[in-house]
Amino acid sequence: MDPIEKIIRENCWRFDKGYPKSQEDINYLKSLIESQLQEQEEDELAQLKTQLIKTIQDANDLSDKEIRAYIKSINNRGYKKDITQKLADKGYTADRFKFGNKALDKINKDVDEADLSVYFDYLKNPKNLKDIKAAGKFHEELGLPKELVKSFVDIEPGADQGGSSIGKAELFISLFFDDIGNTADETDPETGEVKKAKGDNKWDGVGNLEVKGTGGRLGQQGGRGLDATAIFKSLVSDLLPEEKVIEFGEKFFKNPWRMAESISSLYKLAKENGVKEEQVQDKIIDALDKVYWNQGMASNYFKTEKDFTDLEEITKNLLKLNTESYSKVKGVDAILFIDTKRGDNQYIVVKKEDYNDTIDNKKFWTRTKGPTGYQWNDVNPNLVIQ
């Protein structure tokens, strides 16, 4: 029997006609039903709690670690709505995700093992990203448990409504820092034109912040982005006589076509074959500009003979060119690199005006430590924090 029908049947004697007739009778019955239903829910909840306690007490084989995990999970239940509200405050409502509420459910599940009471205590006085060191470990800078920070860094809710994947640390950076928020597309009220958001996050007072985890690229993944081998072959043909092109190609027209080694060798060989130094430099610069989004920035870094011949210097210049050109094309004002592989929350955040100094000091570099990271068929290699 339906619980409400049962309550009505049990209380029909309270009315003269056996059923509520006046509005006063109806109101009384409503309050009676609400009261008894609440009592039933409280009784059921008390029974479930008793059952849960007994289950844990009877489970003699549970370790201390498992018991703590259960306690933490139970305590976290009360924070689920708070997490969802915090996400909404930062612009991450269900409609911002491709999978809507399922994405929110996954986020809550991802942090299920974190001590959320510590997180919400931290939110009483959250830090700004601009106020912490430019490099370090997030949990140390925030004064929080390493595992708590890592659980938020590891959140991956899937794609946004535009289909772009939301990577690790993007939500973390918004949820922990007061001056970081979600970027959003903007619609021109007069034309209706939609301007796509730039970067992964918005950094108050700085601009658009891009977030890159371990192995992140400043451009498309290998196999999906530009394969610049045709540009390289055309460059060789422009600078060398035909018989030298064949000789040069036997050495350099094979994978992995390392950019640093091939540029250095081509530069020297072209000069040996009577090509003027200025022409050699201009041709190489023109080719590199084609590779990096035609932004005309290669001449900012390739200036002296050493820039074209020293393998490490070439690699350094390619990284600077890649970083600056990417930032301009994507409208990025700062990049946050975070180690998402080792789990130690190590990071470095670099504003665009500091790119060159940071690269000179090798604070971030290609995953391949030697001058082999840049290849003509992989012009946006994986990057790591050094």
Helix and strand layout, with pairings?
Layout: H1 3-11, H2 23-58, H3 64-76, H4 80-89, H5 101-110, H6 116-122, E1 135-137, H7 138-142, H8 146-153, E2 158-159, E3 165-166, H9 170-176, E4 180-182, E5 186-187, E6 194-195, E7 201-203, E8 207-212, H10 229-239, H11 242-252, H12 259-272, H13 277-291, H14 305-309, H15 311-330, E9 334-338, E10 346-351, H16 355-360, E11 364-366, E12 383-385
Helix pairs in contact: 1-2, 10-13, 12-13, 12-15
Describe the structure.
- With 386 residues, the chain is an alpha+beta fold.
- It folds into 3 domains: 1-55, no CATH class; 79-191, no CATH class; 229-385, no CATH class.
- It has helices spanning 3-11, 23-58, 64-76, 80-89, 101-110, 116-122, 138-142, 146-153, 170-176, 229-239, 242-252, 259-272, 277-291, 305-309, 311-330, 355-360, and strands at 135-137, 158-159, 165-166, 180-182, 186-187, 194-195, 201-203, 207-212, 334-338, 346-351, 364-366, 383-385.
- A hairpin with a 3-residue loop joins β7 and β8 (207-212).
Radius of gyration: 31 Å
Number of helices: 16
Model regions low in confidence, pLDDT < 50 over at least 5 residues: none
The total count of strands amounts to 12
Cα shape: elongated
Output the structural class.
Answer: alpha+beta
One letter per element, helices H and strands E, the order comes to HHHHHHEHHEEHEEEEEHHHHHHEEHEE
Q: Give the strand order, joined by hyphens, for the main sheet.
A: 1-10-9-8-7-4
Number of domains: 3
Helix content: 40-55%
Terminal-residue CA separation: 68 Å
| Largest sheet data | 6 strands, mixed
Mean pLDDT: 85
Share of residues in strands: 5-15%
